[in-house]
Design a protein that fits this description.
With 525 residues, the protein is mainly α. The protein folds into three domains: 130 residues, Rossmann fold; 137 residues, Serine Threonine Protein Phosphatase 5, Tetratricopeptide repeat (Alpha Horseshoe); 169 residues, DNA Cyclobutane Dipyrimidine Photolyase, subunit A, domain 3. Helices cover 48% and strands 5% of the residues. It is built from 22 helices and five strands. Helix 2 runs antiparallel to helix 7 and helix 3 packs parallel to helix 4.
Protein backbone atom coordinates (compact mmCIF):
# COMPACT_ATOMS: atom_id res chain seq x y z
CA UNK A 1 0.00 0.00 0.00
CA UNK A 2 1.26 3.50 -0.78
CA UNK A 3 2.51 5.59 2.11
CA UNK A 4 0.26 8.42 0.94
CA UNK A 5 -3.22 8.72 2.43
CA UNK A 6 -5.65 6.36 0.71
CA UNK A 7 -8.28 6.49 3.46
CA UNK A 8 -9.97 9.74 4.37
CA UNK A 9 -11.58 8.72 7.68
CA UNK A 10 -11.12 5.64 9.85
CA UNK A 11 -14.37 5.32 11.80
CA UNK A 12 -14.07 3.53 15.13
CA UNK A 13 -17.02 1.41 16.26
CA UNK A 14 -16.66 0.22 19.85
CA UNK A 15 -18.47 -2.81 21.24
CA UNK A 16 -21.11 -0.67 22.95
CA UNK A 17 -21.71 1.56 19.90
CA UNK A 18 -23.61 -0.72 17.52
CA UNK A 19 -25.89 2.06 16.33
CA UNK A 20 -26.54 2.12 12.59
CA UNK A 21 -27.76 5.73 12.89
CA UNK A 22 -24.74 6.93 14.88
CA UNK A 23 -23.23 10.34 14.19
CA UNK A 24 -20.08 8.59 12.90
CA UNK A 25 -22.04 7.76 9.73
CA UNK A 26 -22.86 11.40 8.96
CA UNK A 27 -21.34 12.18 5.53
CA UNK A 28 -19.82 8.70 5.37
CA UNK A 29 -18.35 7.94 1.94
CA UNK A 30 -17.83 4.19 1.31
CA UNK A 31 -15.24 5.01 -1.36
CA UNK A 32 -13.02 6.98 1.04
CA UNK A 33 -14.03 6.02 4.59
CA UNK A 34 -13.47 2.70 6.37
CA UNK A 35 -14.86 1.25 9.60
CA UNK A 36 -12.67 -0.27 12.32
CA UNK A 37 -13.73 -2.74 15.02
CA UNK A 38 -11.78 -5.03 17.34
CA UNK A 39 -12.32 -7.85 19.79
CA UNK A 40 -9.40 -7.79 22.22
CA UNK A 41 -8.22 -10.08 24.98
CA UNK A 42 -7.56 -7.08 27.22
CA UNK A 43 -11.16 -5.88 27.09
CA UNK A 44 -12.35 -9.45 27.71
CA UNK A 45 -10.21 -9.96 30.80
CA UNK A 46 -9.57 -6.62 32.52
CA UNK A 47 -12.56 -7.76 34.56
CA UNK A 48 -13.07 -11.52 34.66
CA UNK A 49 -16.10 -11.51 32.38
CA UNK A 50 -19.02 -13.91 32.46
CA UNK A 51 -18.93 -16.19 29.39
CA UNK A 52 -22.38 -15.06 28.30
CA UNK A 53 -21.36 -11.40 28.52
CA UNK A 54 -18.39 -12.08 26.24
CA UNK A 55 -20.51 -14.05 23.79
CA UNK A 56 -23.18 -11.35 23.64
CA UNK A 57 -20.72 -8.57 22.85
CA UNK A 58 -18.72 -10.55 20.27
CA UNK A 59 -21.81 -11.93 18.52
CA UNK A 60 -23.50 -8.51 18.37
CA UNK A 61 -20.29 -6.95 17.05
CA UNK A 62 -19.84 -9.59 14.33
CA UNK A 63 -23.43 -9.28 13.21
CA UNK A 64 -23.04 -5.50 13.03
CA UNK A 65 -19.84 -5.93 11.01
CA UNK A 66 -21.55 -8.21 8.51
CA UNK A 67 -24.50 -5.84 8.15
CA UNK A 68 -22.12 -2.96 7.40
CA UNK A 69 -20.23 -5.03 4.83
CA UNK A 70 -23.53 -5.97 3.21
CA UNK A 71 -24.05 -2.23 2.58
CA UNK A 72 -20.78 -2.09 0.67
CA UNK A 73 -18.69 -0.60 3.47
CA UNK A 74 -15.14 -1.70 4.26
CA UNK A 75 -14.73 -2.94 7.82
CA UNK A 76 -11.32 -3.69 9.32
CA UNK A 77 -12.25 -6.21 11.99
CA UNK A 78 -9.97 -7.95 14.49
CA UNK A 79 -11.52 -11.21 15.59
CA UNK A 80 -10.49 -13.32 18.56
CA UNK A 81 -10.01 -17.04 17.95
CA UNK A 82 -9.92 -20.03 20.31
CA UNK A 83 -6.10 -19.88 20.15
CA UNK A 84 -4.63 -16.77 21.86
CA UNK A 85 -1.32 -17.28 20.05
CA UNK A 86 -3.01 -16.17 16.82
CA UNK A 87 -3.85 -12.72 18.18
CA UNK A 88 -2.21 -9.79 16.37
CA UNK A 89 -1.99 -7.81 19.59
CA UNK A 90 -3.27 -8.16 23.12
CA UNK A 91 -4.64 -4.71 23.83
CA UNK A 92 -6.88 -2.29 22.02
CA UNK A 93 -4.36 0.54 21.79
CA UNK A 94 -1.64 -1.70 20.36
CA UNK A 95 -3.88 -3.04 17.59
CA UNK A 96 -5.32 0.36 16.70
CA UNK A 97 -1.91 2.03 16.68
CA UNK A 98 -0.60 -0.63 14.29
CA UNK A 99 -3.56 -0.16 11.93
CA UNK A 100 -3.24 3.62 11.96
CA UNK A 101 0.39 3.20 10.90
CA UNK A 102 -0.53 0.67 8.22
CA UNK A 103 -3.70 2.27 6.83
CA UNK A 104 -2.59 5.91 7.23
CA UNK A 105 -6.03 7.53 7.49
CA UNK A 106 -6.24 11.30 7.52
CA UNK A 107 -8.55 11.33 10.53
CA UNK A 108 -10.16 9.14 13.21
CA UNK A 109 -13.89 9.55 13.79
CA UNK A 110 -15.69 8.21 16.86
CA UNK A 111 -18.43 8.99 19.33
CA UNK A 112 -17.72 9.38 23.03
CA UNK A 113 -17.04 5.96 24.61
CA UNK A 114 -19.08 4.79 27.59
CA UNK A 115 -15.95 4.28 29.68
CA UNK A 116 -13.64 7.00 31.04
CA UNK A 117 -10.70 4.57 30.87
CA UNK A 118 -11.24 3.96 27.15
CA UNK A 119 -11.70 7.68 26.49
CA UNK A 120 -8.38 8.43 28.18
CA UNK A 121 -6.64 5.66 26.28
CA UNK A 122 -7.92 6.90 22.91
CA UNK A 123 -6.93 10.49 23.61
CA UNK A 124 -3.46 9.33 24.58
CA UNK A 125 -3.16 7.13 21.49
CA UNK A 126 -4.30 9.92 19.17
CA UNK A 127 -1.72 12.27 20.63
CA UNK A 128 1.11 9.77 20.23
CA UNK A 129 -0.02 8.89 16.68
CA UNK A 130 -0.23 12.55 15.65
CA UNK A 131 -3.59 12.04 13.99
CA UNK A 132 -6.63 14.31 14.05
CA UNK A 133 -9.66 12.97 15.91
CA UNK A 134 -13.25 14.02 15.29
CA UNK A 135 -15.15 13.33 18.54
CA UNK A 136 -18.88 13.26 17.82
CA UNK A 137 -21.80 13.48 20.20
CA UNK A 138 -23.60 10.27 21.09
CA UNK A 139 -27.13 10.91 19.79
CA UNK A 140 -28.43 7.73 21.39
CA UNK A 141 -29.24 9.64 24.58
CA UNK A 142 -31.86 12.31 25.20
CA UNK A 143 -29.23 14.62 26.66
CA UNK A 144 -25.77 15.74 25.70
CA UNK A 145 -23.28 15.46 28.53
CA UNK A 146 -22.78 19.23 28.45
CA UNK A 147 -26.50 19.75 29.04
CA UNK A 148 -26.34 17.76 32.26
CA UNK A 149 -23.33 19.80 33.36
CA UNK A 150 -25.39 22.95 32.85
CA UNK A 151 -28.31 21.43 34.75
CA UNK A 152 -26.06 20.56 37.70
CA UNK A 153 -24.38 23.97 37.91
CA UNK A 154 -25.22 25.78 41.12
CA UNK A 155 -27.20 22.91 42.67
CA UNK A 156 -26.19 21.77 46.16
CA UNK A 157 -27.54 18.30 45.47
CA UNK A 158 -28.78 16.40 42.45
CA UNK A 159 -32.09 14.59 42.82
CA UNK A 160 -33.15 12.26 40.03
CA UNK A 161 -36.84 12.98 40.52
CA UNK A 162 -36.45 16.69 39.79
CA UNK A 163 -34.13 16.03 36.84
CA UNK A 164 -36.70 13.55 35.47
CA UNK A 165 -39.49 16.12 35.67
CA UNK A 166 -37.37 18.67 33.80
CA UNK A 167 -36.67 16.20 31.00
CA UNK A 168 -40.29 15.04 30.79
CA UNK A 169 -41.43 18.62 30.36
CA UNK A 170 -38.82 19.33 27.73
CA UNK A 171 -39.65 16.19 25.74
CA UNK A 172 -43.45 16.47 26.31
CA UNK A 173 -43.65 12.85 27.46
CA UNK A 174 -46.73 11.81 29.47
CA UNK A 175 -47.74 15.46 29.76
CA UNK A 176 -51.19 16.99 29.26
CA UNK A 177 -51.86 19.88 26.89
CA UNK A 178 -51.99 22.11 29.97
CA UNK A 179 -48.44 21.15 30.89
CA UNK A 180 -49.32 18.91 33.84
CA UNK A 181 -48.12 15.33 34.37
CA UNK A 182 -50.48 12.70 33.02
CA UNK A 183 -52.73 11.40 35.81
CA UNK A 184 -51.90 14.34 38.07
CA UNK A 185 -48.75 12.76 39.53
CA UNK A 186 -45.11 12.68 38.44
CA UNK A 187 -44.58 9.09 39.52
CA UNK A 188 -46.67 6.19 40.74
CA UNK A 189 -44.19 4.31 42.91
CA UNK A 190 -46.83 3.86 45.61
CA UNK A 191 -48.74 1.64 43.16
CA UNK A 192 -45.65 -0.33 42.16
CA UNK A 193 -44.78 -2.24 45.32
CA UNK A 194 -47.12 -5.21 45.23
CA UNK A 195 -45.89 -8.66 46.14
CA UNK A 196 -47.16 -12.00 44.93
CA UNK A 197 -49.58 -13.92 47.11
CA UNK A 198 -48.98 -17.41 48.44
CA UNK A 199 -49.73 -18.88 45.04
CA UNK A 200 -46.95 -16.91 43.43
CA UNK A 201 -46.98 -15.09 40.09
CA UNK A 202 -49.68 -16.02 37.56
CA UNK A 203 -48.76 -17.76 34.35
CA UNK A 204 -46.58 -15.39 32.34
CA UNK A 205 -45.83 -16.00 28.66
CA UNK A 206 -42.15 -16.96 28.38
CA UNK A 207 -39.87 -14.23 27.02
CA UNK A 208 -39.13 -14.34 23.32
CA UNK A 209 -35.99 -16.40 22.62
CA UNK A 210 -33.48 -15.97 19.82
CA UNK A 211 -31.96 -19.24 18.73
CA UNK A 212 -28.23 -18.79 18.01
CA UNK A 213 -27.47 -18.70 14.28
CA UNK A 214 -24.25 -20.01 12.72
CA UNK A 215 -22.35 -16.82 13.48
CA UNK A 216 -23.41 -16.82 17.13
CA UNK A 217 -22.58 -20.53 17.44
CA UNK A 218 -19.05 -19.77 16.20
CA UNK A 219 -18.74 -17.18 18.96
CA UNK A 220 -20.13 -19.54 21.60
CA UNK A 221 -17.61 -22.17 20.59
CA UNK A 222 -14.74 -19.68 20.70
CA UNK A 223 -15.73 -18.34 24.13
CA UNK A 224 -16.19 -21.82 25.58
CA UNK A 225 -12.73 -22.86 24.43
CA UNK A 226 -10.75 -19.69 25.01
CA UNK A 227 -12.40 -18.53 28.23
CA UNK A 228 -13.15 -21.89 29.77
CA UNK A 229 -12.11 -20.79 33.26
CA UNK A 230 -14.46 -17.78 33.30
CA UNK A 231 -17.66 -17.79 35.35
CA UNK A 232 -21.14 -18.41 34.04
CA UNK A 233 -22.81 -20.67 31.54
CA UNK A 234 -23.58 -20.42 27.82
CA UNK A 235 -26.31 -23.08 27.86
CA UNK A 236 -29.18 -20.57 28.01
CA UNK A 237 -27.83 -18.11 25.42
CA UNK A 238 -30.95 -16.66 23.77
CA UNK A 239 -30.15 -12.96 23.60
CA UNK A 240 -30.95 -10.61 20.71
CA UNK A 241 -27.76 -9.73 18.82
CA UNK A 242 -29.16 -7.58 15.99
CA UNK A 243 -31.27 -4.44 15.86
CA UNK A 244 -34.17 -6.43 14.39
CA UNK A 245 -34.09 -8.91 17.24
CA UNK A 246 -33.88 -6.07 19.77
CA UNK A 247 -37.05 -4.60 18.27
CA UNK A 248 -38.74 -7.99 18.57
CA UNK A 249 -37.77 -8.18 22.24
CA UNK A 250 -39.26 -4.72 22.85
CA UNK A 251 -42.48 -5.71 21.08
CA UNK A 252 -42.70 -8.85 23.22
CA UNK A 253 -42.36 -6.81 26.42
CA UNK A 254 -44.96 -4.27 25.38
CA UNK A 255 -47.41 -7.01 24.39
CA UNK A 256 -46.96 -9.49 27.24
CA UNK A 257 -45.33 -7.85 30.26
CA UNK A 258 -45.77 -4.08 30.38
CA UNK A 259 -49.33 -4.23 31.70
CA UNK A 260 -48.25 -5.81 35.02
CA UNK A 261 -44.68 -4.53 35.08
CA UNK A 262 -45.47 -1.62 37.39
CA UNK A 263 -47.31 -3.22 40.25
CA UNK A 264 -44.95 -6.21 40.47
CA UNK A 265 -41.80 -4.23 39.67
CA UNK A 266 -40.17 -4.97 43.05
CA UNK A 267 -41.42 -8.52 43.60
CA UNK A 268 -39.20 -11.64 43.56
CA UNK A 269 -40.00 -15.34 43.34
CA UNK A 270 -37.97 -18.55 43.32
CA UNK A 271 -36.92 -19.75 39.85
CA UNK A 272 -38.56 -16.73 38.18
CA UNK A 273 -35.69 -14.72 36.76
CA UNK A 274 -37.61 -12.45 34.38
CA UNK A 275 -41.20 -12.05 35.62
CA UNK A 276 -42.62 -8.85 34.06
CA UNK A 277 -39.29 -7.16 33.37
CA UNK A 278 -38.19 -6.19 29.87
CA UNK A 279 -34.54 -7.37 29.90
CA UNK A 280 -33.87 -4.62 27.35
CA UNK A 281 -30.94 -3.03 29.18
CA UNK A 282 -28.27 -5.03 27.31
CA UNK A 283 -29.48 -4.10 23.81
CA UNK A 284 -30.04 -0.51 24.92
CA UNK A 285 -26.54 -0.23 26.32
CA UNK A 286 -24.81 -1.51 23.18
CA UNK A 287 -27.08 0.77 21.10
CA UNK A 288 -28.94 -1.94 19.19
CA UNK A 289 -32.14 -0.34 20.46
CA UNK A 290 -32.91 3.36 20.76
CA UNK A 291 -34.38 4.58 24.08
CA UNK A 292 -36.82 6.86 22.24
CA UNK A 293 -38.29 3.80 20.55
CA UNK A 294 -38.85 2.19 23.98
CA UNK A 295 -40.45 5.28 25.50
CA UNK A 296 -42.66 5.89 22.46
CA UNK A 297 -43.83 2.27 22.41
CA UNK A 298 -44.74 2.33 26.10
CA UNK A 299 -46.57 5.68 25.85
CA UNK A 300 -48.44 4.41 22.80
CA UNK A 301 -49.56 1.34 24.79
CA UNK A 302 -50.98 3.67 27.43
CA UNK A 303 -52.73 5.89 24.89
CA UNK A 304 -54.31 2.79 23.32
CA UNK A 305 -55.45 1.37 26.69
CA UNK A 306 -53.08 -1.59 26.48
CA UNK A 307 -51.17 -0.75 29.67
CA UNK A 308 -51.98 1.26 32.82
CA UNK A 309 -50.30 4.55 33.61
CA UNK A 310 -48.42 3.28 36.68
CA UNK A 311 -46.65 0.62 34.59
CA UNK A 312 -45.91 2.92 31.68
CA UNK A 313 -44.67 5.79 33.84
CA UNK A 314 -42.46 3.41 35.84
CA UNK A 315 -40.88 2.08 32.66
CA UNK A 316 -40.45 5.56 31.18
CA UNK A 317 -38.81 6.75 34.41
CA UNK A 318 -36.24 3.96 34.23
CA UNK A 319 -35.15 5.16 30.78
CA UNK A 320 -35.85 8.88 30.58
CA UNK A 321 -35.14 9.56 34.24
CA UNK A 322 -32.76 7.11 35.84
CA UNK A 323 -30.68 6.08 32.82
CA UNK A 324 -30.07 9.67 31.68
CA UNK A 325 -29.41 10.85 35.25
CA UNK A 326 -26.85 8.11 35.90
CA UNK A 327 -24.96 8.91 32.70
CA UNK A 328 -24.91 12.59 33.63
CA UNK A 329 -23.51 11.82 37.07
CA UNK A 330 -20.80 9.59 35.60
CA UNK A 331 -19.37 12.17 33.21
CA UNK A 332 -19.85 15.03 35.69
CA UNK A 333 -17.92 13.31 38.50
CA UNK A 334 -15.30 11.15 36.78
CA UNK A 335 -12.51 10.26 37.31
CA UNK A 336 -12.67 11.09 41.03
CA UNK A 337 -15.97 9.25 41.38
CA UNK A 338 -14.37 5.82 40.91
CA UNK A 339 -12.21 6.33 44.00
CA UNK A 340 -15.01 7.34 46.37
CA UNK A 341 -15.40 5.29 49.55
CA UNK A 342 -17.65 7.36 51.82
CA UNK A 343 -18.14 4.59 54.41
CA UNK A 344 -14.37 3.96 54.60
CA UNK A 345 -14.72 0.28 53.76
CA UNK A 346 -11.68 -1.96 54.06
CA UNK A 347 -10.24 -3.66 50.97
CA UNK A 348 -12.76 -6.50 51.22
CA UNK A 349 -13.73 -8.34 48.04
CA UNK A 350 -17.12 -9.81 47.17
CA UNK A 351 -17.86 -13.25 48.65
CA UNK A 352 -16.78 -16.34 46.73
CA UNK A 353 -20.42 -17.38 46.32
CA UNK A 354 -20.96 -14.27 44.17
CA UNK A 355 -19.15 -16.25 41.47
CA UNK A 356 -20.62 -19.72 41.91
CA UNK A 357 -23.82 -19.31 43.94
CA UNK A 358 -22.79 -21.85 46.58
CA UNK A 359 -24.53 -20.56 49.71
CA UNK A 360 -27.29 -21.62 52.10
CA UNK A 361 -28.99 -18.22 51.87
CA UNK A 362 -31.96 -19.03 49.64
CA UNK A 363 -32.32 -15.48 48.32
CA UNK A 364 -28.66 -15.12 47.31
CA UNK A 365 -28.59 -18.64 45.90
CA UNK A 366 -31.61 -18.04 43.64
CA UNK A 367 -30.43 -14.61 42.52
CA UNK A 368 -27.00 -16.01 41.68
CA UNK A 369 -28.68 -18.83 39.77
CA UNK A 370 -30.10 -16.17 37.44
CA UNK A 371 -26.77 -14.35 37.16
CA UNK A 372 -24.86 -17.53 36.32
CA UNK A 373 -27.43 -18.70 33.75
CA UNK A 374 -28.38 -15.35 32.18
CA UNK A 375 -25.74 -12.79 33.28
CA UNK A 376 -28.77 -10.80 34.41
CA UNK A 377 -31.23 -10.22 37.21
CA UNK A 378 -33.70 -7.41 37.63
CA UNK A 379 -33.05 -4.35 39.77
CA UNK A 380 -34.34 -5.63 43.13
CA UNK A 381 -32.08 -8.72 43.30
CA UNK A 382 -29.19 -6.48 42.26
CA UNK A 383 -29.95 -3.75 44.80
CA UNK A 384 -31.71 -5.41 47.73
CA UNK A 385 -30.17 -8.90 47.71
CA UNK A 386 -26.71 -9.04 46.13
CA UNK A 387 -25.93 -5.35 46.47
CA UNK A 388 -27.29 -5.10 49.97
CA UNK A 389 -25.34 -8.12 51.20
CA UNK A 390 -22.11 -6.51 49.94
CA UNK A 391 -23.04 -3.20 51.54
CA UNK A 392 -23.85 -4.72 54.93
CA UNK A 393 -20.80 -6.97 54.84
CA UNK A 394 -18.51 -4.00 54.14
CA UNK A 395 -17.22 -4.90 50.68
CA UNK A 396 -15.13 -2.15 49.10
CA UNK A 397 -17.54 -0.27 46.78
CA UNK A 398 -15.30 -0.35 43.71
CA UNK A 399 -14.80 -4.10 44.09
CA UNK A 400 -18.56 -4.59 44.01
CA UNK A 401 -18.64 -2.50 40.83
CA UNK A 402 -15.85 -4.62 39.28
CA UNK A 403 -17.80 -7.79 40.08
CA UNK A 404 -20.97 -6.29 38.56
CA UNK A 405 -19.05 -5.34 35.41
CA UNK A 406 -17.79 -8.90 35.13
CA UNK A 407 -21.05 -10.75 35.72
CA UNK A 408 -23.82 -8.67 34.10
CA UNK A 409 -24.39 -8.61 30.36
CA UNK A 410 -25.73 -5.05 30.42
CA UNK A 411 -22.86 -3.57 32.45
CA UNK A 412 -21.07 -0.65 30.78
CA UNK A 413 -18.88 1.53 33.01
CA UNK A 414 -21.02 4.68 32.70
CA UNK A 415 -24.14 2.89 33.89
CA UNK A 416 -22.59 0.36 36.28
CA UNK A 417 -20.36 2.62 38.37
CA UNK A 418 -22.97 5.14 39.65
CA UNK A 419 -25.50 2.34 40.17
CA UNK A 420 -23.12 0.07 42.10
CA UNK A 421 -20.57 2.26 43.86
CA UNK A 422 -23.13 5.04 44.30
CA UNK A 423 -26.70 3.82 44.68
CA UNK A 424 -26.05 0.27 45.88
CA UNK A 425 -22.95 0.68 48.06
CA UNK A 426 -23.36 4.34 49.08
CA UNK A 427 -19.71 4.81 48.23
CA UNK A 428 -20.36 8.34 46.94
CA UNK A 429 -21.88 9.43 50.26
CA UNK A 430 -25.23 10.45 48.79
CA UNK A 431 -24.57 11.89 45.33
CA UNK A 432 -26.84 9.37 43.60
CA UNK A 433 -29.08 8.29 46.48
CA UNK A 434 -29.89 10.31 49.58
CA UNK A 435 -29.66 7.28 51.89
CA UNK A 436 -28.14 3.81 51.92
CA UNK A 437 -30.41 1.06 50.57
CA UNK A 438 -30.28 -1.17 53.62
CA UNK A 439 -32.84 -3.38 55.33
CA UNK A 440 -33.03 -6.50 57.44
CA UNK A 441 -33.98 -9.92 56.11
CA UNK A 442 -37.60 -8.98 56.70
CA UNK A 443 -37.62 -6.88 53.51
CA UNK A 444 -36.68 -9.94 51.45
CA UNK A 445 -39.28 -11.98 53.34
CA UNK A 446 -41.93 -9.38 52.48
CA UNK A 447 -41.11 -9.13 48.77
CA UNK A 448 -40.45 -12.80 47.95
CA UNK A 449 -40.96 -16.43 48.93
CA UNK A 450 -37.25 -17.03 49.52
CA UNK A 451 -37.38 -17.20 53.31
CA UNK A 452 -39.91 -20.01 53.17
CA UNK A 453 -37.25 -22.29 51.71
CA UNK A 454 -34.28 -21.04 53.74
CA UNK A 455 -32.63 -22.46 56.85
CA UNK A 456 -32.21 -18.92 58.19
CA UNK A 457 -34.96 -16.93 59.92
CA UNK A 458 -35.29 -13.27 58.86
CA UNK A 459 -36.62 -12.22 62.28
CA UNK A 460 -33.55 -13.50 64.13
CA UNK A 461 -30.24 -11.64 64.39
CA UNK A 462 -28.24 -13.99 66.65
CA UNK A 463 -28.02 -17.75 66.98
CA UNK A 464 -27.75 -20.66 64.57
CA UNK A 465 -30.86 -19.70 62.60
CA UNK A 466 -30.13 -15.97 62.45
CA UNK A 467 -30.46 -14.51 58.97
CA UNK A 468 -27.08 -13.08 57.88
CA UNK A 469 -28.91 -10.11 56.35
CA UNK A 470 -30.56 -9.28 59.66
CA UNK A 471 -27.37 -9.71 61.70
CA UNK A 472 -25.31 -7.62 59.30
CA UNK A 473 -28.05 -4.97 59.02
CA UNK A 474 -27.98 -4.13 62.71
CA UNK A 475 -24.20 -4.33 62.75
CA UNK A 476 -24.06 -1.98 59.73
CA UNK A 477 -26.27 0.60 61.43
CA UNK A 478 -24.23 0.31 64.62
CA UNK A 479 -20.90 0.74 62.80
CA UNK A 480 -22.11 3.88 61.03
CA UNK A 481 -24.43 5.23 63.72
CA UNK A 482 -22.71 8.62 63.96
CA UNK A 483 -22.79 9.20 60.20
CA UNK A 484 -26.41 8.12 59.80
CA UNK A 485 -27.72 10.08 62.79
CA UNK A 486 -27.49 13.29 60.78
CA UNK A 487 -29.36 11.82 57.79
CA UNK A 488 -33.06 12.64 58.09
CA UNK A 489 -34.04 9.69 55.91
CA UNK A 490 -32.28 7.33 58.32
CA UNK A 491 -34.00 8.64 61.47
CA UNK A 492 -36.46 5.76 61.79
CA UNK A 493 -33.76 3.11 61.36
CA UNK A 494 -31.39 4.75 63.83
CA UNK A 495 -34.20 5.00 66.40
CA UNK A 496 -34.89 1.28 65.98
CA UNK A 497 -31.19 0.60 66.55
CA UNK A 498 -31.30 2.60 69.77
CA UNK A 499 -33.94 0.22 71.09
CA UNK A 500 -31.36 -2.56 71.12
CA UNK A 501 -29.72 -3.10 74.50
CA UNK A 502 -25.93 -2.99 74.86
CA UNK A 503 -25.98 -6.74 75.48
CA UNK A 504 -27.96 -7.39 72.28
CA UNK A 505 -25.58 -5.25 70.23
CA UNK A 506 -22.56 -7.03 71.66
CA UNK A 507 -23.97 -10.39 70.54
CA UNK A 508 -24.88 -8.99 67.11
CA UNK A 509 -21.34 -7.64 66.65
CA UNK A 510 -19.86 -11.01 67.58
CA UNK A 511 -22.12 -12.83 65.11
CA UNK A 512 -21.37 -10.31 62.36
CA UNK A 513 -17.64 -10.77 62.92
CA UNK A 514 -18.06 -14.54 62.60
CA UNK A 515 -19.93 -14.09 59.31
CA UNK A 516 -17.17 -11.88 57.89
CA UNK A 517 -14.48 -14.35 58.92
CA UNK A 518 -16.43 -17.18 57.28
CA UNK A 519 -16.83 -15.18 54.08
CA UNK A 520 -13.14 -14.25 53.95
CA UNK A 521 -12.16 -17.87 54.62
CA UNK A 522 -14.46 -19.05 51.83
CA UNK A 523 -16.62 -21.09 54.19
CA UNK A 524 -20.20 -21.79 53.19
CA UNK A 525 -22.81 -19.68 54.90
Amino acid sequence: MSRSHSIRNLVLILGDQLDATSAVFDHFDPARDHLWMAETAEEATHVWCHKLRLAFFFSAMRHFRDQQRAQGRTVHYHELTPDPHRDRGRNFAEILRSDIHHLRPQKLILVQPGDFRVTTMLKDLAGKSSIDVDWREDRHFYQKTGEFDNYATGKKSLVMEFFYRTLRKRESILMTEEGDPEGGEWNFDSDNREKFGKEGPPQIPPPVRFEPDDLTREVLDMVEKRFADHSGSLEAFDLPVTAGQAEAQLDDFIEHRLRDFGRFEDAMWTDEAFLYHSRLSAVLNVKLLNPRRCVDAAVSAYRNNKAPLNSVEGFVRQILGWREFIRGIYWLKMPEYAGMNALNCDDLDVPGFFWDGETDMACVKDCMKSVIAHAWSHHIPRLMVLGQFSLLLGVHPYKFHAWHMAMYVDAIDWVSLPNTLGMSQYGDGGIVGTKPYCASGNYIHKMSNYCKHCRYKPSESVGEQACPFTTLYWDFLDRHRDAFSSNRRMTFQVKNLERKSPEQLTEIRKQADRIRKQVVAGDRI
